[in-house]
Amino acid sequence: MYRVICSHAARHPERLAAILCVLALTTVAPSCRRTQPAEAKPDSGGVSPQPGLFTVAPDQMSHIRTVPVGTANWPVAVQTTGTVDWDADHTTQAITQVNGPITRILVDLGTPVVQGQPLLYVSSPDVANAVAAYRKARNREVYNRRIVDRMKELLDRGAIALKDYQSSEADYNDALTDVQNSLQALRIFGIASQDIEAAEKQGTAVNTELAVRSPISGAVVQKLVSPGMVIQAGQTICFAISDVSTVWVQGHIFDRDLPSVRVGDPVDESNPSLPEHFHGTVAYIGSFVDPNTRTTPVRIVTRNPAGLLKKDMFVDAVVHTGTRGRVLVVPISAVLRDDKNEPIVYVQAEPGKFAQRSVTVAGQQDGLNAISSGLREGETVVSDGSLFLQFANTIR
């Protein structure tokens, strides 16, 4: 018991005098006694029996101050919980455009990457075919360009008809179109410009290794391939890349709070295991109710510069809405914690008699606690001296 009292006194030094008074009163002549609950009558009309009351002698009432439960016009803050998810607007998949086996993997889970960085290499005959088609198209272009030049000289000398010159020009334009089409195929495969320039040089060896590059800057959050694995063009997902500097927190709003929440409302988030607090914004409010939780989903875009928030982590969130409402309030000193760390207050049932009651705290500001359940307006609660009653009850 000495440890309990010292612990409370250390946390609340301003109440040390009240605790010492309790020790004196309970040691010399304890006057707080607990009235046994009244026996429930068979015909009670559905009313629960009156709970046990703590009776305080008149000469000890000077240690206790009571106040009525009041109301205040506060900004409505909605408390909820949420699950961290990747920001889908800044998350994408790395998919290869060719068929073939993987020859090299350059990154692993958690590796930071930049846009265009090679992630792995694939050895594919599709690359050789695309380069060969480009070379042939370039050869036809050069050949038809020469024919056009010769036909122009002959036309100037009157040796050929105009239609023959126009026919050679049409052949050259067709060859030029083939070059552009084959070049586009190389670009779709993600072949770098220097590799395309090398492909234009006749007689050079064709490199059949193709790099799968990161489409965005971020971190590798999924790895779905292994060395030697044969992948299919446009089908095999190699990696998932996400910019984890922002994440989504998927929250849940009950029906009673839904009218207060708006897109754009600021949100404060925390996790008991993390030292930092996080800040986000409501970006989406669902148009349906989850049948399992009976809540409406909301999406909170949250800044995560240090990358502390991980996928599927739980957070507590407080949505600061732009609406105001009347709430029940009591002084901060009126709310204590029981042995289960649940908030309680002492309500005056009648003069000199007090009952312990569990409450739900919905927020705190200006030295007051907002109470969402457990009290009614006009009831009288103990504001100073709550520890007197709590320790008296503990000793018994």
Description of the structure:
- The strands form 5 sheets. The chain has a 6-stranded antiparallel beta barrel with strand order 4-13-16-15-14-17. It has a 5-stranded antiparallel β-sheet with strand order 1-2-20-19-18, covered by helices on one side.
- A hairpin with a 2-residue loop joins strand 21 (360-365) and strand 22 (368-373).
- The protein has 396 residues and is of the alpha+beta class.
- Helix 2 (16-28) packs across helix 6 and helix 3 (125-157) packs antiparallel against helix 4 (162-188).
- Among the domains are: 2-76 and 326-395, conserved putative lor/sdh protein from methanococcus maripaludis s2 fold (Beta Barrel); 126-207, Helix Hairpins (Orthogonal Bundle), CATH 1.10.287.
- The chain contains 6 helices and 23 strands.
Ends apart, CA distance between termini: 11 Å
Uncertain runs are 1-10, 12-50
Q: Based on DSSP secondary structure assignment, what is the total number of beta strands?
A: 23
Strand order of the largest sheet: 4-13-16-15-14-17
What is the CATH fold-level name of the domain at 2-76 and 326-395?
conserved putative lor/sdh protein from methanococcus maripaludis s2 fold
Estimate what percentage of residues fall within beta strands: 35-45%
**Secondary-structure element series:** HHEEEEEEEEHHHEEEEEEEEEEEEEEEH
CATH architecture assignment of the domain at 2-76 and 326-395: Beta Barrel
CATH class of the domain at 2-76 and 326-395: Mainly Beta
Report the structural category.
alpha+beta
- Describe the global form: elongated
Number of helices: 6
Question: What is the gyration radius calculated from CA atoms?
Answer: 38 Å
Nearest-integer average pLDDT: 81
Main sheet summary:
6 strands, antiparallel, barrel
Helical fraction equals 25-40%
